[in-house]
Structures are given as structure tokens and as C-alpha cells.
Automatic annotation (TrEMBL):
Keywords from the named record: Stress response
Residue ranges annotated for the SHSP domain, each copy included: 27-138
Source species of the chain: Roseibium aquae
Name under which the protein is recorded: Heat-shock protein Hsp20
Domain of life per record: Bacteria
InterPro entries per the UniProt record, alphabetical: A-crystallin/Hsp20_dom, ACD_IbpA/B, HSP20-like_chaperone
Family to which the UniProt record says this protein belongs: Belongs to the small heat shock protein (HSP20) family.
Length: 148
């Protein structure tokens, strides 16, 4: 099992304690089913791809609420009329949660070839975007003292 030591980051950053705590928790509590990838598809675009072979779109549920994306999958019980000698394809129910950063919204989702693709977009408000600040010339303003 992989473990990342984030203590050097705690010493060199201010205000990111919550982020590093979430990373620590995610590394220690990560379930393995179903497997997924997270990729960056653009400057402010991301995609979560989850392997959900055997699930149809009607058996999957996505919910985004308060910076948490929840993905649930549940198959109806239909094995009563079949005798399965070996089960290698998992059909168990699952629930997977992803913590979304501020200003990240779910843009869409589609199921293709057993892979669920969830597109995410980060939309920063204008006040949060970096802006260039002009540096004034060498002239200084003099403040007059009006108190006698």
C-alpha cells in the first residue's frame, strides 16, 4: 500500500491544512471497487473515468451536493433463476465519493463501453482570477498634517 508523507508540505504552506488532511484520509481509506482514473483534460477541466462494466445507465446514480460528488451503482437481484459456478465479474452495489474543490461543478456524464465518464469544470469568479497590478512611478504624494 502506498503512503505519502505530507509533513514537509505542512511546514511550507499556510491555509492548506484541510486539503492535506483530506489527502491523508483518502490515502488511508481508499476502497478498491470500482477502479477509476482522474485526469486533467484542459486548464480548468477534469474527467473522472470509472470502470462500471455490467452496469447500465439506469443502475447508476450521480449526485453532486455541497462539494461532494457521490456515485452509486446497484444491480437488481436477478441471479435466482441461474446457477453460477464461478463469479469473477463483480456485480455488487457500490458507492464512491469524491470531494470537489470550490468552484468545481459537474459538467456532464456519459456511459461508454463499460466506462462512466464524468466531466468536471472549474469556474473561477472574476474576483478570484489573477490580475496584473500596475506599479506607479517614482512621484510620491505628500500628506499634509492638518492638526496644530
Amino acid at each position: 500500500m502506498r503512503h505519502f508523507d505530507l509533513s514537509p508540505l505542512y511546514r511550507s504552506t499556510v491555509g492548506f491544512d484541510r486539503l492535506f488532511s483530506m489527502l491523508d484520509n483518502a490515502a488511508s481509506e481508499t476502497p478498491s471497487y470500482p477502479p477509476y482514473n482522474i485526469e486533467r483534460t484542459g486548464e480548468n477541466a477534469y474527467r473522472i473515468t470509472m470502470a462500471v462494466a455490467g452496469f447500465s445507465d439506469s443502475e447508476l446514480e450521480l449526485e453532486a451536493k455541497e462539494h461532494v460528488l457521490t456515485i452509486r451503482g446497484e444491480k437488481p437481484e436477478s441471479d435466482a433463476d441461474r446457477e453460477i459456478l464461478y463469479r469473477g465479474i463483480a456485480s455488487r452495489a457500490f458507492e464512491r465519493r469524491f470531494q470537489l474543490a470550490e468552484f468545481v461543478r459537474v459538467d456532464g456524464a456519459h456511459l461508454e463501453n463499460g466506462l462512466l465518464h464524468i466531466d468536471l469544470v472549474r469556474e473561477l469568479p472574476e474576483t478570484m482570477k489573477p490580475r496584473k497590478i500596475e506599479i506607479g512611478s517614482g512621484s510620491q504624494k505628500q500628506i499634509e498634517n492638518t492638526a496644530h
